[in-house]
Amino acid sequence: MNFDYTDEQKSLKDEARRFLAAVSPLTAVRAVLEEPGIGHDPALWKRICEQGWCGAAIPEGYGGLGMGYVDLCALAEELGRSLAPVPFASTIYQFAEALVIAGNEEQKQRLLPLVSAGEIIGTLAASEGPGVLRSDALKVRYVDGKLSGTKVPVIDGLAANWAIVLAASDEGSVLVLVDLSQGSVQREVVATLDPTRGAARIHFDGAAGEVIGQAGQGAQLLARVQDHAAVLLAFEQVGGADRCLEMARDYALERYAFGRQIGSYQAIKHKLADMFIANEVGRANAYYGAWALSTQAPELPLAAAAARVAASAAYWQASKENIQTHGGIGFTWEADCHLFYRRARHLGLVVGAPRDWKRRLATRIEQQVAAEGIAA
Amino acid sequence: MNFDYTDEQKSLKDEARRFLAAVSPLTAVRAVLEEPGIGHDPALWKRICEQGWCGAAIPEGYGGLGMGYVDLCALAEELGRSLAPVPFASTIYQFAEALVIAGNEEQKQRLLPLVSAGEIIGTLAASEGPGVLRSDALKVRYVDGKLSGTKVPVIDGLAANWAIVLAASDEGSVLVLVDLSQGSVQREVVATLDPTRGAARIHFDGAAGEVIGQAGQGAQLLARVQDHAAVLLAFEQVGGADRCLEMARDYALERYAFGRQIGSYQAIKHKLADMFIANEVGRANAYYGAWALSTQAPELPLAAAAARVAASAAYWQASKENIQTHGGIGFTWEADCHLFYRRARHLGLVVGAPRDWKRRLATRIEQQVAAEGIAA
Amino acid sequence: MNFDDNPEEAAYRAEVRAWIEGNAPDLSVLTAEERRTWHPAHKEAARQWQVVKADAGYACISWPREWGGSGGTNIQEAIFNQEEARAGVQFTYFMTGLHFLLPALLEHNQDELTLSLIPSAVRGDKIWCQLFSEPSSGSDSAGARCAAVRDGDDWVINGQKVWNSGAQASDYGLLLTRTNPDVPKHKGLTVFWVDMTTPGLEVRPIKMMSGDAELNEVFLTDVRIPDCQRVGEIDGGWAVVISTLMNERAALGSGTGLSWRDVMALARQTPSWEGTVMDDPAFREWFADYYIRTEAVRLTSFRTLSSLSRGEAPGPESSAGKLLWSNSTQDMSSQAVDLLDMSGLLVDAEDAAANGAFQHRFLWAPGLRLGGGTDEILKNVIAERVLGLPGDVRLDKGVPFREIPSGR
Amino acid sequence: MNFDDNPEEAAYRAEVRAWIEGNAPDLSVLTAEERRTWHPAHKEAARQWQVVKADAGYACISWPREWGGSGGTNIQEAIFNQEEARAGVQFTYFMTGLHFLLPALLEHNQDELTLSLIPSAVRGDKIWCQLFSEPSSGSDSAGARCAAVRDGDDWVINGQKVWNSGAQASDYGLLLTRTNPDVPKHKGLTVFWVDMTTPGLEVRPIKMMSGDAELNEVFLTDVRIPDCQRVGEIDGGWAVVISTLMNERAALGSGTGLSWRDVMALARQTPSWEGTVMDDPAFREWFADYYIRTEAVRLTSFRTLSSLSRGEAPGPESSAGKLLWSNSTQDMSSQAVDLLDMSGLLVDAEDAAANGAFQHRFLWAPGLRLGGGTDEILKNVIAERVLGLPGDVRLDKGVPFREIPSGR
């Protein structure tokens, strides 16, 4: 048993933190915020790709480093801390994981090396409109090798070269791999709560696409991809939540009211203690998720749902109470607090809202208990 | 518009408070607690009956004082404050209200004067076992004028002379008026979280009973009775919650830790402020319920559900945080805090748990909005 | 307890409803862009409506006639406000002046010069703003540093203000200054009214995290104003501050903005696993909890009104109302965004459900818990003024202002 | 990160599981009444099990051999505890002594007399209790007033203690006294160990609100003990207190009692509008939130273990664990009672669902938030020791103990 990063992983994490502090300070995040529609920082993305991070968890046989998922979690935590405005989550946690889980050998050989090398940006397009994603009511259809319909919002949908699209077909739901550069794909920017992570509406007008994984199993495969993504996103969330707590702590030590540091008032002290506790809940569940992901344990679906629910709650609390601790200044555009408030909600929604994951968690607990019953 | 008690109602309330402080101090409540199975204080009940409170809201034609529901709410608030261990709620808010709502003229003439005069104790028996009451799955049956089956827990079920029982019949659910003194009724004490309010298991073994209200409409009639009871109980809850806050406030002023009154720490100050806010939410919704009850406004079902949800939440918070404010001493048997913690849960469950009433509230908001749509 | 109008109230309501129907401005002629608060066309529509109201005696119903009011009751004013809201013609431009500042100003100054300022405010020709907060004293108004130094019949003012709502469009301001730094902080403050065009006074809008810019910084450099613009006593400014804060909290406690009806409408149009979100039991339980809180805000504001109508000061229950409203609004906006799932991220009116109103609220919500008294300050107010608990341990009490630690 | 056993750990687990299966007491021979904690038959079964464990080297696995332990690792001890809990043979009688008090005692005293006390504790023949809290100093252990006055080679002790868990059945106690009231409060305390049968020492059980009576008051009247029973330095008792509190919080942070599995079982057997409560989406959302908190308690205690196994002191994350566990347990017990609806009121084992376990928990829950550090104290610990925020403003700092205001 070992419930922490290894020393090597800690070094990797420290190095990543130093690197990101240098190349992705909050001024760089803000530059993306201030330029509507740009959605990410291509220069920063290039530097991150040069670090080899894109291939961290991709097997060596596909051009990756094969370091394993816990190392990727360590990087995710630092990316989340830094708010790095890059298409890493879409490309690595979703697009690449979908290939790993559902792709055939030829598809993996064709695309994973390009991902590892940072030569393509990928995304996963599932959402079609307001409300929870229902794979039995998809409007985007895949017929005779062609995709038709609209997906919105697609994170990094404008920057991406490739997408994996959930669609309805005669055989049931299906994941479809699509080259977004073809003419029958139209894309337009949509504005979101977090302008530092780009999003698009994508119209498919008979775009050519190939099935990945088994046709009819699209929804089930998507759920597995989302479990992988949920664990990795949880680390971004925990990283961001920790930084919010640190910002609040630092401000509470620096700011005086009524002749005292505001951090000497119990209202602030206990608010920050509550944030710490919520972050610990997020972290503990995320770590368990990392273990389950890295070992592909049977507990993975359960652990992934728990990690997502806990980390989403922690980041929401940390990001809003960080603003509250800062007082009026925290509510301004100039202050950095809102960057985290926006990112917290972005990450809390990208693979489905907490209400969806709470139900997945309850279902998976039931399944786990049933499995134990059979085993015992 | 007037959003407060009238001056006359305030006098009534002040008088009731003085009276209850004299005849029902917490030592009297404790005496009932310490004698398992007794369930109420018969001497106190006699004195309360002598005040005429039983007939406060019963029309003069039935031997009551016809003062109206807001006056009864004022009395309920003081009864709740004092924790008076008497079968007032069962007899007045439930049994008498069921007669008023569903009884025929003969039944009212026969029983309401006895209620007004404090000569009988009544109760309402609906619950049959764990979980929400489902009127489509009742096991107690009413066939050929005879009741069979078991109700548990029935509040004041041992002390009561009469009960109104929800039962299944060939025509659907039905309310049945039963004389509990007959031999085919067996009763036994059951212990509950609040021993200061007695409860029983009642077996009906072919007991004679008469229908009150329309057969087949039992569940609907019960819901109307529960709306009346919910408003009146909300005042008991608000009265109890206010007293918890006062106890906590007084203790916070009296107790020193680290050389300061504990009430000078923001952790305690803000805890008490949060209790105050929750109590205000309870009070505001209870007042609106009182208005709707007293005017039999179409908003009554909505207002009653809101009052119950808000007052149950307030009393739970106030009763648990009162203990917390008192520290270890608040957790002892000798301290009075737990009397309120017990009563809070008793009142929160007697006509159904908050989860049930939250759903009733949502449904009634929808109905209200639909009705507005039709009216507009 | 009576939540119905009595006969006179019902008659008054019918009268003003009819009058509003006949006289209210038609906002549908404005474009979506023009309908945003602070757009010149929107502001002009609001000003014209204020003139119409003033001419008909509906502008400041509860003010005494000698101040340009109608000598009506608080209940009448509340009924008018309810009907104005119902007709969708309630504007916020004049609220700070007419509800918070001018009543406090008139409480302390009744001279001819002061009274001459009133009619233009009542008619919406002139807008007033509050100039109290400073960078180093957000919740701690009494910590103001902006210095006013006597020079003959004038005062010369230097310093900086911040969070001044509407200052960018205001004609007058109520300004809090420090006139004596050698006495404890509450005892060395003086309030003035200023013309916002006075030389040396510069307004710079602050962009808020929601992207809006209706709050400002105000810089004062050698601003010279005559002593006749002083409000109340020299070094007696704290009494004026208290008057305005009481008015402000009473107003904020009644809540505004998206209501439970809007959330319900959103839930009913958003699909869920079965039916719509409104059919989801988990949402229904949340909705019930949210409803009782917003109802409490509404009903508590009625009780404030009951007190007012009996001639009593609005009690600290309005602090409870403001806390409830701001916190439950943040919770509601979060819930609303979440129930849309990934589409909750969309913010543009053409893409987003309900024209993006919930996303805009989500980005404004943190400010609601800060403006008009932070959560923490208001809980202290309730603990101390309602419950009688001791004040926080104060290290600055009785200490000369210039010796109080500030961390800077 | 690895939540699996490594090969050695797995082997150890298999070994102790087999050993426990072969040696654990059979509690099924006891009646329901006899199976309650503190019933003589239950206590005797626990004592016998402790003897069996001690003989096999499983009683204090992680203690050094010179203290009567087995010189094993913390991980081994945790594995044994997990397997003991799994087999349903975990008892609390010896926990205070073996986990909180004796390690602290041995940290400060290593003399022969002290070491002679250990074997009887390890074998469960003697039970230890903590005598720290006093009526006027609940959360403020350093506020102890119980006076110890030197008289030759002895000390004479007068005062009162309270909240002493298990004192009614204990043989020894660790006693906190004030030896110098003229210095600041942390600096005038001294700790002793006492035989609970010493003349002048009287134990009176306190009945708690749940009806249980395992907490006590202890009165000390002219209790005379020799100086050789002193633990640590004269006036140096605070260091001993800190040692025990650290041990206590580390242990409490791991949580015990009804688990999410029990709640789930209750929900599955309780009917709802459709199916069971487990099928209700509102319950499922609550359950997910509850689950992540209890999982966090479990997983955080593993991290404490990771620190321990690296030879580091248990960090303040155990304060977070204790806060989470006590608060989520109160919430859980409330939810469990409510989902039963009116039948949730029933408390007797024969009437109530799950034999009334949830109702008993409901009545114990307020105590969980008070014992072993109140919510408020633990949040201060996190704020100050983890986050580095300033201590509360202290009016008693550096003040001679006898001059500190006490309200009495």
End-to-end gap of chain C:
54 Å
**What's the CATH class of the largest domain in chain A, please?**
Mainly Alpha
- Strand line-up across the major sheet of chain C: 1-4-5-8
What is the count of β-strands of chain A? Answer: 9
Derived from helix and strand composition plus strand pairing, the structural class of chain C reads alpha+beta
Low-confidence residue ranges of chain A:
none
The DSSP helix count of chain C reads 11
The CATH superfamily title of the largest domain in chain A: Butyryl-CoA Dehydrogenase, subunit A, domain 3
Q: How would you characterize the largest beta sheet of chain C?
A: 4 strands, mixed
The number of domains of chain C is: 3
Mean pLDDT of chain C: 88
CATH fold node name of the largest domain in chain A: Butyryl-CoA Dehydrogenase, subunit A, domain 3
What structural class results from the helix and strand content of chain A? alpha+beta
Task: Could you tell me the CATH topology label of the largest domain in chain C.
Answer: Butyryl-CoA Dehydrogenase, subunit A, domain 3
Task: Supply the CATH architecture of the largest domain in chain C.
Answer: Up-down Bundle
Query: How would you sum up the major sheet of chain A?
Result: 7 strands, mixed
- Helix percentage range of chain C: 40-55%
Helix content of chain A: 40-55%
Give the ordered list of helices and strands of chain C: HHHHHEEEEEEEEHHHHHH
Structure description:
The complex is a heterotetramer, with two copies of chain A (376 residues) and two copies of chain C (408 residues). Helices cover 55% and strands 15% of the residues of chain A. Chain A has 376 residues and is of the alpha+beta class. Chain A folds into three domains: 7-116, Butyryl-Coa Dehydrogenase, subunit A, domain 1 (Orthogonal Bundle); 122-214, Butyryl-CoA Dehydrogenase, subunit A, domain 2 (Beta Barrel); 219-375, Butyryl-CoA Dehydrogenase, subunit A, domain 3. In chain A, helix 1 (7-23) runs parallel beside helix 4 and helix 7 (218-254) packs antiparallel against helix 10 (337-349). The mean pLDDT of chain A is 96. In chain C, a hairpin with a 2-residue loop joins strand 2 (147-151) and strand 3 (154-162). In chain C, helix 9 (317-339) runs antiparallel to helix 11. In chain C, 49% of the residues are buried. At the A-C interface, strand 8, strand 9, helix 9, helix 10 and helix 11 of A face helix 9, helix 10 and helix 11 of C.
